[in-house]
Amino acid sequence: MMTNSLIRFENVFKAYGDETILENIDFEIKRGEFVFLIGPSGAGKSTILKLLNKEEVPTGGKVYIDDIDLSTVDYSEMYKIRRKIGVIFQDFRVIKSRNVFENVAISLEVTDATDTVIHDVVPNILEMVGLQNKILKKTSELSGGEIQRLAIARALAHEPDIIVADEPTGMIDPKAASEVMNLLLEINKLGTTVLMATHDYNIVNHYRKRVLKIEDGKLISDKKVGTYHE
Amino acid sequence: MNSLLQFLRKEKMISTISIIAIFVSFTLLSFIISFSVLSNTAMNFLQKQVQVRVFFKDTYSETSILSLKTELEKDQRVLEVGYTSKDDALRIFKDLSKNDPILQESLTTNILPASIEIKAIDVKDLDDIANEFSVKEYVDSVKYLKDIKDTFKYYSSIITIISIILFVLFFTVSFGIILSTIRINIFQKKDEIETMKIVGASDEFIQRPFVHQGVVYAVLGSFLSGLLSMVILVLMYASNTLGLRDLREVYLVGNFKVHFIAFTLILVLVLNLLGYLLGRFGSKAAIDTYLKI
Fold first, then answer.
1. Domain boundaries along the sequence of chain B
2. Of A174, A209, B222, B258, which one has the greatest count of Cβ atoms within 10 A?
3. Set of chain A residues whose Cβ sits within 8 Å of the Cβ of B198
4. What is the ipTM of this complex?
């Protein structure tokens, strides 16, 4: 069935042995939306994000990306789906053995982009995230906020349809967090769908976007312009 | 390729140990191959020496024997026919027993028979030829050195089986070396591989540098061992060790023979090909298990 959604969860259930992580998760996100996925630590937010790129597979139900049922996609073919998604990890996952330029370039290298394209695109992306002066720096020389911006640059480099951000402001100071949020909003304005997991209610209340609230593995609310109270 | 060169530079110890281990393993492999080829050559040589010797009764005239010889030379199965007259036989006997005067004196009259030696094109025909002559009335006896051929064939089979077992063993050891080295490298880059997968790297993209690394180690190790084997064999040939220069040609497989120097070149090529296959499939096997995320 063709729908207008870019991300769709149909009655998704996830358990590790006897421990239920997610239960009856049903939602869809349309192209161009900005959605906060909120809930306390351990609620199941990260698991939902991992289901999107098949780092995890559901115990029951279906996950669709661009109307493709991920259960029908073999692991060896998942790279095609993953190229539609730019992931910003909570722990950044920058590659320490590579410098700033190389960390961003990897997103393009995996698509077999030519050196010309890489040398054209990467400086532009780094300029967009404000790292143009750090292009040849080692990642160990960057601050927390700069590393987070580097992770965003890497997620953006191959022009994905979706940005999935797992607590992107969780490990940085408020000023850097504000910069990261502004960046994500700009990206969203350019048409990229953003799904951001967070438990920072200040951010959610300030930006007033659609909010999916998860608690104890259940989707307890889905508000078009939501707020978040602890 | 850049990341491969970086790894070789950074991990000099692992790279050097791996290349040396493969070099040693492949050198042993090359000895096994050389031994097997030389054994096959010796087998072929010995088979060619095996012949049927037919001794004639004294009543059978030399003219008849020579006429029989001419007839045999036209036989499709026969490679060569030699004739030893009674007088030739006596001369050979005297020559052989010249240091034993008592033995020489004991031979007052020539009791030695005339004979012909028959070499077949295919040794399998020797049985038939020997049987055909053994029933002739003018034949005194037929000597056929069948036992030597069969004994050598028996030992040659054992050598071949042992060679195959050792070959498989050393090839497996080399495979294990490649597998372990690549796994160490994969383990060091585990986080990088996971990140690459998440940003959309295909399996082939992730495999590529590891496969290159495995191929470089195996081809380098096998090339060096091939080079060493070639030098040793050429030196043996030049100094005529084991009569290799007299031999000139060796039998690679069955009856397929090449010049000894060509054999050394083929050996280097075969070792390199084996090295390439080993590196390619060994490293692929090592990385495949880490791609299921």
1. 2-46+155-290, 51-144
2. B222
3. 53, 55, 82, 87, 93
4. 0.80
